[in-house]
Write a structure and sequence with these properties.
With 341 residues, this protein is α+β, with helices and mostly antiparallel strands. It contains ten helices and ten strands. α4 (139-149) crosses α5.
Length: 341
Amino acid sequence: MKMTVQLVVCDDDHQETRTDVVVLEKACQRIEQIGLTLAEAKALLSALQQQIVERQAATFLAMCRHCQACGTSLRAKGQHTITLRTLFGTINLTSPRLRHCPCAPHETATLSPLTKLLPEHTAPELLFMETKWASLVSYGLTIQALKDFLPVDETLSVSTVRSNTLAVAQRCEAELEEEQGSFIEGCPRDWGQLPIPDGPMTVGIDGGYVRDWDEKKRQFEVIVGKSILAFRRDEEEDIPSSNCFGFVQTLDTKPKRRLFKVLKSQGLQMNQQLIFLSDGGDTVRDLQLYLSPEAEHLLDWFHVSIESSQGRRSPVRDHHVHVVCLRQRRRLAERARATSG
């Protein structure tokens, strides 16, 4: 059985152009022959991406070949090749260099329209997938996963993914606003006029020490956490959603801003219930303060059980932690009595 996959392009003048993208020879005698194989799907996506990008680039260049002021055709001076890495293959495009029209002064003698359209050589969607996978697994596994399921460039390397991930991280860091001592917005009168918030948020925070890769005897403290939103009111089902965050405590200059941004991305309002769970240590305790007027700060059950079982012999040395634990135990006892009564 012979199958031809065609691309039909209809331009602004309603003229259609048909192009054969892939021709497949398919049998149907065994189950493994049914449907597209992974190799066929990758080849189809790659060929289709090539055709689509080439036609988009040609249409864009056609709009740039005339002077925007007087309409005169711009003369060509030369051309070069631009490589664009996309999620469905690497595309090589011919980029012409055009002379500016003499009807108006310009800073340069020539221009390259395609360079302005494609200032980066990696498509945003591929950059997103590289960064997303690299934040979850190693760079090597990221490359393996992308190559297994997508027709990405075979020359994709660990150094490329590492550089792209670092560039995205630096850009996100530059977009982060300045640190503040308090992020509580408005006043109680304003909070009462806010719409009904989504479900309560629960934030678990903990710290730990990680060994330095280069200096094995050196360690640094890492603060990590997870924010869970119980439900969203505009959704039919109460499905929890979560976000994770982390930073190096001794290096990060905007830890509270970073946590607040995570909470705001989940829709935090000043009238929304917010619960923090931690071990009560100095670094995690200070991080939680002045983020919301509805915030409640609790010790996690592990440290509550330590205090309850060992009493004054508790290994928790911080006096503040001990006081908070006693208050929390008293509050839980009062709730239990109220429920039973």
